[in-house]
Amino acid sequence: MTLSPLDDYPVHQAPEVMRHVTTSDRNFYDRYYFNVHPCSDEMMMLIGIGQYPNLGVMDAFALVRRGPAHKVVRASRELGADRMNTTVGPFRVEVLEGLKRLRVVLDENDPAAREHGLAFDLTWEGSVPATLEAPHYLRWQERVVFDSRRIAQTGRWTGTITVDGETIDVTPDHWWGSRDRSWGIRPVGEPEPPGIQVNNAGTFYWLYTPMQFEDHSILCIIQEDEKGRRVLEEATRVWPDREPEYLGRPEYIPVYAEGTRDVITATLRFAPPGGEAFEVRATPILPVHLMVGTGYGLEPDWKHGMYQGPDLKVQGVAYDTRKPDDAARMWGMVDAVGRYEYADGAQPTDVTTGYGLYEYWALGPHPSFPE
Fold first, then answer.
1. What phi and psi values does residue 272 have, to the nearest 5 degrees?
2. Rounded Cα distance, 342 and 277, in Å
3. Residue 218's closest CA among 269, 284, 287?
4. Residues 281, 149 share a domain
5. How far apart are CA 265 and CA 263, in angstroms?
6. Backbone phi, then psi, for 325, in 5-degree steps?
7. What total of structural domains would you count in the chain?
8. What CATH number does the domain containing 249 carry?
9. Range of the domain at 164
10. Which of 2-11, 12-21, 48-57, 193-202 has the lowest mean pLDDT?
11. Are residues 150 and 247 in the same domain?
12. How far is the C-alpha of 97 from the C-alpha of 44, rounded, in Å?
């Protein structure tokens, strides 16, 4: 049966049922991503729920970093015909008001949630309008590896999070975050034979900083290749009640811990056309290794879009970063709580402080790292 309830709505954009996308590329995906933090280094939670129509899979994860603990709950099932069904075992997402309010749940009554010591019932409300980012397109050798679009938004959270039996009240005055909705083509599923891709430099030099202040947000994204050429860039200042402001070509100057590629602080420079140039000082205050346990590619037996069999599968993994073996696993993309500061007034002492995601990865050769 290829029909689903969504086929009864006038939303088709191709002579196909809604179950089927217009490309046969196995790597097509459609995903929600959220982060939750209390504007401090106390805790951060990352949540993802994705569909992979050409692989016939839907999966979800939640990762919480609290103190030295790195805890993940993840689930996978066959996608089926109904793409409006956003439930994956104990996980679900509900769109309460499109582009504004959503509810995200890891059901505390589910045996898996109790077994793995994590549950939440959270309502998201955007603090600025959802913003469509620039297209992300990248061809390596002969293969289109990225061809996707993304909606970005900052906002605030209400609800509860339960970690190992302790329930935390989440209130919007204290708990902020950002979310994105992305869809298109990017590497997912089981590994493919690399073919000519084996000749790629393997660089992924990346910065993504949706930062939130009391009355506005700044959305910045940068990707460069192994020669330092821009693959993707955008910088926008967004308010709740007026047109967004284009901030020109963003410049990124990170400072790394000696002998590593771990960012300890960074300067972001913006020069809006016709406006005053300014700098934002960014400080990652709680690093969370997004790729560890969540399906982004490090574990051979659990990847986004990887078929886990005909039955629902729910798993939990936990690490203690105080243990050397567990700490050594913390590798790959970092989604940190970031503190952001910049002069936003008539006087240099008028400093605006905000918080948000500081996501970065500096993999492979790049001019910043001369051999």
1. -65, 130
2. 11
3. 269
4. no
5. 6
6. -65, -40
7. 2
8. 2.40.370
9. 1-190+291-322
10. 193-202
11. no
12. 25
